[in-house]
């Protein structure tokens, strides 16, 4: 890695490890690299991320480039989205106009629809995993396929994964569910936040309490189902 890439800065960190911006010494291209410590952290989620992400080629999905091994880490090299997270853009704006929300949401749906056509569900769609390139007319780039599953290669989704504010009610059931349908729910939450500037189902007096968010979500679904009957 050190022979080929020049480290520029850290982009972020999480349970997976660290993401860094690096420059290809030969081409001068800026790319993002996710470093995952070798050992227990390289689990089946990492394996699925690599297998699924590398199969996807779409303008609204971060391009997977290659995987490298260092003596201490596994490094996933990807396209760099210079525009940052869509979440940050909403935080600055408060909320989007209908036209702006439509512009970004259509691109998000295009990327998600392509994933589903390839029989891959993302399972963690959210504003933080929706990046923007650095162009004057920003292009949406879906990233982070760590929770993704392929209907062709993997078992049907069953585990409760994702981000509480965005996950569909059936994901909480601990039973098998349709990952594509769950993705569509997450897209709906994303659109809501873009237009309203807050999360649906959250307690306005305690918006960061995700246990309450899940409880209110479940109650709302039950009430809505009763109304339909």
CATH topology of the largest domain: Transferase(Phosphotransferase), domain 1
Distance between the termini: 60 Å
Alpha-beta classification: alpha+beta
Largest sheet: 5 strands, antiparallel
Number of domains: 2
Q: Name the helicity range.
A: 25-40%
Question: Can you put this structure into words, describing what you see?
Answer:
The chain has helices at residues 44-54, 86-93, 98-117, 179-196, 210-228; strands at 5-14, 17-24, 30-37, 64-69, 73-79, 84-85, 120-121, 130-132, 140-142, 149-150. It folds into two domains: 5-79, Phosphorylase Kinase, domain 1 (2-Layer Sandwich); 84-228, Orthogonal Bundle (Transferase(Phosphotransferase), domain 1). With 229 residues, the chain is an alpha+beta fold. The strands form three sheets. The protein has a five-stranded antiparallel beta sheet with strand order 1-2-3-5-4, covered by helices on one side. The longest helix has 20 residues, at 98-117. This is non-specific serine/threonine protein kinase.
Short description, anyone?
Helices cover 33% and strands 22% of the residues. It has helices at 44-54, 86-93, 98-117, 179-196, 210-228; strands at 5-14, 17-24, 30-37, 64-69, 73-79, 84-85, 120-121, 130-132, 140-142, 149-150.
Features:
229 residues; alpha+beta; Phosphorylase Kinase, domain 1; 2 domains; 5-stranded antiparallel sheet; 5 helices; Protein_kinase_ATP_BS; abscisic acid signaling pathway
Task: Set out the fold topology.
Blueprint: E1 5-14, E2 17-24, E3 30-37, H1 44-54, E4 64-69, E5 73-79, E6 84-85, H2 86-93, H3 98-117, E7 120-121, E8 130-132, E9 140-142, E10 149-150, H4 179-196, H5 210-228
Antiparallel strand pairs: 1-2, 2-3, 3-5, 4-5, 6-8, 7-10, 8-9
């Amino acid at each position: 890695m050190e022979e080929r890439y020049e480290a520029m800065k850290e982009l972020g960190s999480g349970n997976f490890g660290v993401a860094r911006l690096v420059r290809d010494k030969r081409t001068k291209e800026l790319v993002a690299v996710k470093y995952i410590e070798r050992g227990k952290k390289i689990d089946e989620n990492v394996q699925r991320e690599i297998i699924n992400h590398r199969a996807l080629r779409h303008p609204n999905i971060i391009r997977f480039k290659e995987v490298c091994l260092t003596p201490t880490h596994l490094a996933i090299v990807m396209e760099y989205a210079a525009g940052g997270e869509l979440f940050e853009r909403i935080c600055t704006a408060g909320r989007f106009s209908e036209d702006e929300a439509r512009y970004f949401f259509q691109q998000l749906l295009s990327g998600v629809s392509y994933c589903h056509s390839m029989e891959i569900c993302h399972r963690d769609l959210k504003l933080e995993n929706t990046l923007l390139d650095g162009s004057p007319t920003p292009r949406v780039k879906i990233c982070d396929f760590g929770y993704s599953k392929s209907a062709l290669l993997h078992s049907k989704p069953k585990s409760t994964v994702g981000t509480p504010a965005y996950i569909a009610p059936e994901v909480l059931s601990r039973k098998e569910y349709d990952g594509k349908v769950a993705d569509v729910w997450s897209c709906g939450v994303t659109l809501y936040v873009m237009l309203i500037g807050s999360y649906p189902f959250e307690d306005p007096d305690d918006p960061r309490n995700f246990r309450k968010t899940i409880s209110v979500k479940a109650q709302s679904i039950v009430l809505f189902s009763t109304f339909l009957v």
